[in-house]
Specification:
With 144 residues, this protein is an alpha+beta fold. It contains 2 helices and 6 strands; from the N terminus they run H-E-E-H-E-E-E-E.
């Protein structure tokens, strides 16, 4: 599993959640940028992605590896430049790690889009997988 890279323990001592969160974020956005067709490998069938707000403001949920893969392959982030501004992590339920990322995507010939994204990294043998993933674009304020 690709997410496992962030979770290698040294001599049975788990790394600090900040170390896990930072390593995960660097790896995740690199793969998202360079090979979107591989991003689904961070997830499992029971994973939930929150994406594209509905008319009532709630996010659409995407689950199963197949649909998650379809989402990433159809999302045109390949070749866009990504900037990660902050990665905040906390230890969470049963050894998991909560990760909050803020930054921006700049698609060629389009404007910069600021985003905030949260992940719950659930432990699995040899590392972690993304159980929950919520992405929200931040509206551009006039004059910014």
């Amino acid at each position: 599993a690709m997410a496992a890279k962030a979770g290698n323990s040294v001599g049975g001592v788990l790394p600090h959640p900040h170390v896990i969160g930072n390593a995960f974020a660097q790896h995740y956005y690199k793969i998202l940028n360079e090979s979107p067709e591989d991003v689904h490998k961070f997830y499992h069938d029971e994973s939930i992605l929150g994406r594209k707000p509905n008319s009532d403001g709630t996010l659409t949920s995407i689950t199963t590896m197949r649909d998650i893969n379809k989402h990433f392959v159809s999302t045109y982030l390949k070749g866009c430049s990504m900037q990660i501004d902050n990665v905040d992590s906390q230890p969470s339920h049963e050894g998991g790690v909560l990760v909050l990322v803020s930054g921006s995507f700049t698609v060629p010939d389009a404007m910069k889009r600021r985003f905030t994204q949260s992940f719950f990294l659930a432990p699995q043998k040899g590392g972690y997988f993304v159980l929950n993933d919520v992405l929200r674009y931040i509206p551009v304020e006039p004059g910014n």
